[in-house]
Amino acid sequence: MTAKDLKNALLREAVQGKLVPQIASEGNARDLLEEIKRSRHSELVSESKNKAKKEKPLPEITEEDIPFDIPENWCWCRLGNLAEIKSSKRVFEKDYVNDGIPFFRSKEIGDLSRGELIHTELFISKKHYEELKKNYGVPKINDILLTSVGSIGNNWICDGRDFYYKDGNVTQICSNDFYDPNFLTSFLSSPLFFEQVNSSVSGTAYNALTIIKLKSLIFPLPPLAEQKRIVAAIEKFMPLIEEYGKKETELKAFNEQIGTFTKKAILQEAVQGKLVPQIATEGNAKDLLEEIRKERLSHGLDFAYAKSGKRKSKKETALAGSNPCDISDDEIPFDIPENWCWCRLGEITEITMGQSPEGINVGETVQGMEFHQGKIFFTDKIIGKSNQQTSEITKIAKENSILLCMRAPVGKINITDREICIGRGLSSIIPFFNVDTMFLYYLLETLESDFNKKATGSTFKAITGDIVRNQAIPLPPLAEQKRIVAAIEKMLPLCDKLGV
Asked: What count of Cα atoms within 13 Å lies in the side-chain half-sphere of residue 277?
């Protein structure tokens, strides 16, 4: 059961008369309701006889209206029978000043209801406030303010400070000697209140609880002394529920992250050679890397030339040798097994840097091919087609190539299931033979933070092609790469379940 469920259960018990025992000597709520009626009638008559005539009686409560049984010494009434309910006098935008008496809207009442600090943005002058106070009255201590538009139900008991509030958005329930304001706010926070509100609110663009509808809500009224005992009981239990809620929030946050943490830990173990055992018969990654280098040279490419994408001449190829790329100790973040080796990403992959075609917007199609840039690919959103003339496209990511975000979000990766045109926000990475694509994909996942640390730029952060090509990576033998991928893909579904 959640903290919210516990709170709702506590308040439901409270408004049903099940939280504290009934005491006969505390009297009967029906007598209390009669006192309220006489008192309110006298007030209306003293204010204005015409007003007393205009006061429209609220509908009688029928058996069909009653949602549950209450104790014999309680009674049902309409909320409008319990207290005067009204709103404020209209304050116009031209009446706002830079400093003076705070002017509260729904936002401020919501903040106050949660016990949060408020930073009032609107004020009216002291003179204007005094005029409103004299002619129409202002909220007094123990009056209740209730948000009635949009986020309905936030409530706050006035503490005596000087302020005024926005009409329509906030409703005022005036205090009297016949109800405890804390008991009433318990009702206003209970499932009974919201069940009635949800069946009666109106509004085309937003929900609104009008004064008429608020007055018509039915309310279970206990004797005043029992109201106070119920409030005391709620105040005893509520801190425990709030503490439970904090622990629940912490646990939820932990549960949401545990899957991610576990996945990261698995991938980190994988790239350090700790996820599966090493098998001597699978060979040595140094020999694998040498084969890759020779294959590159046979096609007229080596690592140095991969930076520019140029091919070497036959003479240059013959003189180049294997072109090893030394990696300093400072670049090596952890130890790897003896049959693994360190190399640079550009040595074992073909990397294509994206370039935006002229006259084309992200998400459009270029000569029948989708164009993607950075994060757009990761939402897989195609905006539309282009009818503009464009230059010939050359920056193409082939099917099943790994895509790396070069700009924010730097380091994010994906695999394209189709041939696409890539812009400057992406690079395409295709491993050479004897390098497993999925192993490289999981390896690149572990490098996101490294790429982010190396990103530069004032307008937006980005990494260069040289940073990607020169990234030091650990390389295992091919057979072990495949065993690592199999182990990872067996474990990842369990990580997803942990995060549920």
From this structure: 3
Query: From its phi and psi, is residue 410 left (phi > 0), alpha (psi between -120 and 50) or beta?
Result: beta
**Burial of 493 (C-beta count, 10 Å sphere; 0-12/13-18/19+):** exposed
Average pLDDT, stretch 384-394? 46
Other beta carbons within 10 angstroms of residue 406's beta carbon come to 26
Residue type, 54: K
Q: What is the CA radius of gyration of the chain?
A: 36
436 or 384: which carries more pLDDT confidence?
436
Identify residue 415 by its one-letter amino acid code. Answer: I
Q: Which residues of 431-458 are buried (b: 16+ CB within 10 A; e: fewer)?
A: bbebbbbbbbbbbbbbbbeebeebbeee
State the average pLDDT for the chain.
85
Sequence-ordered list of residues with C-beta below 8 angstroms from that of 302, at least 6 positions apart, any chain: 293, 296, 312, 317, 320, 323
User: What is d(CA 56, CA 241) in angstroms, rounded to the nearest whole number?
Assistant: 41
pLDDT classification of 359: cutoffs 50, 70, 90: low
Is 239:232 a contact under the CB 8 Å cutoff?
Answer: no
- Site of tokens 């003189």: 319
Number of helices (H), then strands (E), in the chain: 19, 20
Residue 387's pLDDT band, with cuts at 50, 70 and 90, is very low
Higher pLDDT among residues 33 and 300, named by residue: 33
